[in-house]
């Protein structure tokens, strides 16, 4: 699978990405983006109570998701689950971090 998995990820991160890619395999891009929209809104709400939340970073990551969505038709089919898995990874990891504080 060399070249298909980004370098620098730990085994746990790769395993999570694989799991999330499988989780999104039955979802449309629109469904995944709706979840991402909701997660970004939640981050914006929570940051009002918790100044440690980095809203600018979340918005930057979300803007990458929007670029991926705009280019969706040009993304090869084998790469699409990785893209949607990355989106789920973002909100599940940030949710896990915020609940561990």
Task: Walk me through this protein's architecture.
This protein is mainly alpha-helical and 101 residues long. 67% of the residues lie in helices and 0% in strands. The protein has helices at 11-23, 29-47, 55-70, 80-99. The protein is globular, with a radius of gyration of 14 Å. The termini are far apart. 13% of the residues are buried.
Q: Please state the CA-atom Rg, rounded to the nearest Å.
A: 14 Å
| Percentage of residues in helical conformation | 55-70%
The SSE order reads: HHHH
Low-confidence stretches: none
Cα end-to-end separation: 36 Å
Average pLDDT for all residues? 84
Secondary-structure content class: mainly alpha
Beta-strand segment tally:
0
- Main sheet record: none
Number of helical segments with 4 or more residues: 4
Overall body shape: globular
Strand content: under 5%
Keywords:
single chain, 4 helices
Short summary:
The protein is mainly α.
Q: What secondary-structure arrangement, pairings included, does this model have?
A:
Layout: H1 11-23, H2 29-47, H3 55-70, H4 80-99
Helix pairs in contact: 1-4, 2-3, 2-4
